């Protein structure tokens, strides 16, 4: 009886583990491809719930997370196609891309930066500092 109970317990535990594996691996499998712009490695996207969930799942591993929103009623909307420019403390351009979705995650060196995000000719600026081994989230919002 003990052997059977042990076997059944193992079977249930192994089955639960086997079913959990695809769910745990799923977020990373939905990530957009990584790109390089100068010394910066980044991913951009988040169009669709699975891709957005995947990006939010890995965001903590990137020093910089940008999010782009349109303030609207009854609900805010995510934006794509935002032009992103990042300059260092010496006003040198270190990063310039157009976001493929509402999220952009970037691996950058620690330092002080000016982040500019442009949508339909309207530019928003943020002064940020990225510290070593920290995560910084910056949200850009435009009014509808």
How would you sum up this structure, described in words?
The chain has 144 residues and is of the alpha+beta class. 26% of the residues lie in helices and 43% in strands. The chain has 2 helices and 10 strands; from the N terminus they run αββαββββββββ. It has helices spanning 2-29, 49-58; strands at 35-37, 40-45, 64-71, 77-78, 83-88, 93-98, 103-107, 111-119, 122-130, 136-143. Strands 1, 2, 3, 4, 7 and 10 form a 6-stranded mixed beta sheet that branches. A hairpin with a 4-residue loop joins strand 5 (83-88) and strand 6 (93-98). Helix 1 (2-29) packs across helix 2 (49-58). The termini are far apart. Residues 1-26 have low confidence and may be disordered.
In brief:
The protein has helices at 2-29, 49-58, and strands at 35-37, 40-45, 64-71, 77-78, 83-88, 93-98, 103-107, 111-119, 122-130, 136-143.
Any descriptors?
single chain, 144 residues, alpha+beta, six-stranded mixed sheet, four-stranded antiparallel sheet, 2 helices, globular, disordered N terminus
Counting helices, strands and paired strands, the structural category is alpha+beta
Largest sheet: 6 strands, mixed
Give the helices and strands as they follow along the chain.
HEEHEEEEEEEE
Proportion of helical residues: 25-40%
User: Which shape, going by the Cα principal axes?
Assistant: globular
In round numbers, the mean pLDDT is 85
Radius of gyration: 20 Å
Low-confidence stretches: 1-26
């Amino acid at each position: 009886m003990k052997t059977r109970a042990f076997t059944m317990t193992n079977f249930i535990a192994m089955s639960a583990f086997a079913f959990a594996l695809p769910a745990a691996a799923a977020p990373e499998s939905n990530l957009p491809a990584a790109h390089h712009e100068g010394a910066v490695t980044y991913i951009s996207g988040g169009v669709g719930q699975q891709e957005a969930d995947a990006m939010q799942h890995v965001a903590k591993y990137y020093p910089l997370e940008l999010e782009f929103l349109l303030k609207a009623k009854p609900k805010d909307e995510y934006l794509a196609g935002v032009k992103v420019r990042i300059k260092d403390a010496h006003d040198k351009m270190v990063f310039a891309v157009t976001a493929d979705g509402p999220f952009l995650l970037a691996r950058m060196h620690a330092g002080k930066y000016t982040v500019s995000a442009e949508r339909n000719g309207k530019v928003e600026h943020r002064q940020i500092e990225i510290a070593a081994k920290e995560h910084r989230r910056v949200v850009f919002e435009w009014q509808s």
